Amino acid sequence: MEIERQISQKIEDDFFKGKIIVLLGARQVGKTTLISMLPSCKSNPALFLDGENADVQQLLKNPNAERLKQVAGANKVVVIDEAQKIENIGSILKLFADYVKDIQVLASGSSAFELRNSLNEPLTGRKFEYNLFPLSFVEMVAHTGLLEEIRQLPQRLVYGYYPEIVSKPREAERLLRFLSDSYLYKDIFLFKGIKKPEKMLELLKLLAWQIGSEVNYHELSKTLRIDHQTIESYIAMLEQAFVTYRLPAYHNNHRAELKKSKKIYFNDLGIRNALINDFRPVEVRNDAGALFENFIINELRKQNEYKQVFANFYFWRNTEQREIDLIIEKNNQLQAVEIKWKTSKKIRLTKSFSNLYPNTQFKVIHRDNFFEEII
């Protein structure tokens, strides 16, 4: 099933502008499929290299500009998949950018931690970078229609948006278990800082149980019997591998505001539910509200990235336990968002927040209007 990705046209527009195109995203989110569907990859001779293959790694070991020209041959497009597996990939891409300028190079990778560390300095001013997430609500609306995708919401909250899961719904549970058990974390366990992989998996399960709640690093450290700094580094690695992400607390140094708290969400709910081994229908779950909250924030983040809105996302809470699910900051303007699975009562912006930030816009996103807010 080929589904048009939202950022495809933006990537296509960046072809042959003298820059390396870098595409980052978790394994199995559709990076290779997206690239292969780009018009420039279809209309030009293209060479696809898999960075996980030993012969490709050997071919690109310590090359010079002349060798890279030989590797490219008559191709006008060179795609290097899982580029973080290539030794000195930053220097290799710099050579392409500086000396093989008539060829468009795309480098994709599933580990932002490894790839960004390799590319940032060598490719300063030489790259366009994009992040790719699991499928979005907007992409599926374009594929199946708005009404059908609204009807699929309960399914998405349980099984998520990985392309293979969406295209094979009858096998969703089995495929998600396979993905969460091994394939998705393949890169994480190769990080030099991961000395106890079993602790990482325990941490993931604990985080999966806590979506929508503040995460206490001290409690996690105590439960897992590993130090606070290791917890922080593991969570940073999970974020760099596109498994989870952090939502920090919004504050302006007012005394009653929480400042150091964080919430952690999953980039895909199917992975989260596989970790806790719970694929029950959303209608009978007591975590339906947390799933819906995670879903809405995921979709807003995708649109923020794909439309290049460049807004900052936070949550807010004060010492009196007044809370707002989501604060969006853009151009010095704040928007407060409450996200509710059930809409049984009138919801107003808490005065604890509006007194501090009187010009804040406010909206409520619930199951009856969500599609208007995330498109």
Quaternary assembly? single chain
CATH fold category name of the largest domain: Arc Repressor Mutant, subunit A
**Mean pLDDT rating:** 91
The total strand number stands at 11
Biggest β-sheet, characterized? 5 strands, parallel
Helix/strand/pairing category: alpha/beta
CATH class bucket of the largest domain: Mainly Alpha
Low-confidence stretches: none
Please state roughly what percent of the residues sit in beta strands, choosing from under 5%, 5-15%, 15-25%, 25-35%, 35-45% or over 45%.
15-25%
Number of helical stretches of at least 4 residues = 19
Structurally, the number of domains stands at: 2
CATH superfamily of the largest domain: Winged helix-like DNA-binding domain superfamily/Winged helix DNA-binding domain
The coarse silhouette is globular
Instruction: Write down the Rg.
Output: 22 Å
Strand order of the largest sheet: 2-3-4-1-5
End-to-end separation in angstroms reads 22 Å
Give a verbal description of the structure.
The structure is a single chain. The chain has 375 residues and is α/β, with parallel strands linked by helices. The chain folds into two domains: 8-131, Rossmann fold; 137-306, Arc Repressor Mutant, subunit A, CATH 1.10.10. The protein has helices at 8-13, 31-37, 39-43, 54-59, 65-72, 89-99, 112-119, 137-144, 146-151, 153-159, 163-167, 172-181, 197-209, 217-224, 228-240, 269-275, 288-306, 351-354, 370-373, and strands at residues 20-24, 46-50, 77-81, 104-109, 127-131, 244-248, 262-266, 312-317, 323-330, 333-340, 361-366. The strands form three sheets. It has a five-stranded parallel β-sheet with strand order 2-3-4-1-5, with helices on both faces. Helix 18 links the parallel strand 10 (333-340) and strand 11 (361-366). Helix 10 crosses helix 16 and helix 12 (172-181) crosses helix 16 (269-275). The chain is globular. The chain starts with 7 loop residues before the first helix and ends with a helix.
